[in-house]
Amino acid sequence: MKMTFRWYGSQTDPIPLRYVKQIPGMSGLMGLLDNKAAGVDWPEEEVRAYIDEVHAAGLECEVIESVNVHEDIKMGLPTRDEYIANYISTIRTLAKYGVKVIIYNFMPVFDWLRTDLARVIPEDGSNSLYFDERDLGEMGPLEIVRRTAENSGGFTLPGWEPERLAQLETTLKQYEGMTPDMLRVNFKYFLDAVIPVCEECGVRMACHPDDPAWPIFGLPRIAHSQDDFDKMCALHDSPANTVCLCTGSLGSDPANDIPSVIRHFGEKDRIGAMHVRNIKFLGEHHFREASHLSASGDLDMYAIMKAIYDTCPDTYIRPDHGRMIWDEKGRPGYGLYDRALGATYLNGLWEAICRENGGK
Ligand code: CS2
Ligand code: MN
Asked: Atom 13 (ligand 1): residue with closest C-alpha?
């Protein structure tokens, strides 16, 4: 297992890389070029500069999250070929600089979605990302986008690129009538184009689940259950076509038994990366993000780490979102302190599991 950390680059991440390096057991990053709109070919110069900076801090950069998929690819428009060509060129550039896994998602319009970015947790006064579907009904898509941007503390948010959201009304219209199976046809077209390139250059694509794990605003969503990911794997059967198994996203639906889903895909060698975080259920389609500790939420973090140990022990892991604690001011979900605590806790579980099983 390689423990990693998400870092947005020195332009927009207030956390210096040397702080990341000081977290015990941190091997490297799930890195990204934060300023890249979906569909753009990532310039080699910028990729090299970012990765050189990471290496200079004594960290690896074997995972990139995300290279976002242009909406025209998801909608299957004729213009998609140009964006797929850019995607392929980006894969080749990243491979040249040692990247082994590219995380992405195939969610129409929205990436992750929350109704509050800083909901206070009554027990201890910290705050975390929060979702209540009832609030969403009142708000509607345009309002949720406005509120999310307004409450982000001036930080860029992953998957909420302004270029994409500027087109929101038009894009929502274009998706009207698209069924999950129609979206899957477009997904296959994309995978058929990029996966052979990944095989050739030793990269694995890892698809992140829908977050939350159900359809929203009537948009088709095809990545929120074991069955969905089985279908994805079958669209283009290859060891390079994998899942980024995010426990908190998939786990937002209690019907997804996360340790069992990990075992299912781990045994098939279809987990390219893991995001490990905990969720506290508050009702139907109503949850908040909790500290990583099992006791803080509803996921069994020991069983999750054990499933990883048993079926995909060499995977990349990162603590996913953290709460805001100790008065830290930072990008919602991506502060330093709680993610560092999360990584340390997960490393502790890992050490205990290794010892129990005769390892070091
Ligand atoms: C991330 C996602 O913040 C998060 O929840 O896990 O934004 C993730 O980076 C993307 O969905 C992957 O494309
Ligand atoms: Mn995630």
From this structure: 104
Active site residues: 208, 246, 275, 320-321, 334
What distance in Å separates the CA atoms of residue 129 and residue 212, rounded to the nearest whole number? 12
Confidence of residue 360 (pLDDT cuts 50, 70, 90): low
Q: How confident is the model at residue 169 (pLDDT cuts 50, 70, 90)?
A: confident
Interval 214-237 mean pLDDT: 96
Tell me how far the alpha carbon of residue 347 lies from the centroid of ligand 2, in angstroms.
18
Q: Return d(Cα 158, Cα 212) in angstroms, integer.
A: 15
Q: What mean pLDDT is predicted for residues 320-343?
A: 96
How many whole angstroms separate alpha carbon 158 and alpha carbon 148? 12
Question: Which parts of 76-175 are beta strand (E)?
Answer: 101-104, 116-120, 127-132
Per-residue pLDDT tens digits for 245-299: 999 999 999 999 999 999 999 999 999 999 999 999 999 999 999 999 999 999 9
Contacts of 168 (CB under 8 A, 6+ apart): 109, 141, 142, 145
Q: Which ligand is nearest to the CA of 247?
A: 2
Q: Which domains, from first to last, does the chain contain?
A: 2-356 (3.20.20.150)
**Residue 119, ligand 1, Cβ within 6 A:** no
Ligand 1 atom closest to residue 321's alpha carbon, by position in its atom list = 3
Q: Round to whole Å and give the CA distance between 244 and 231.
A: 15
CA distance 103 to 292: 22
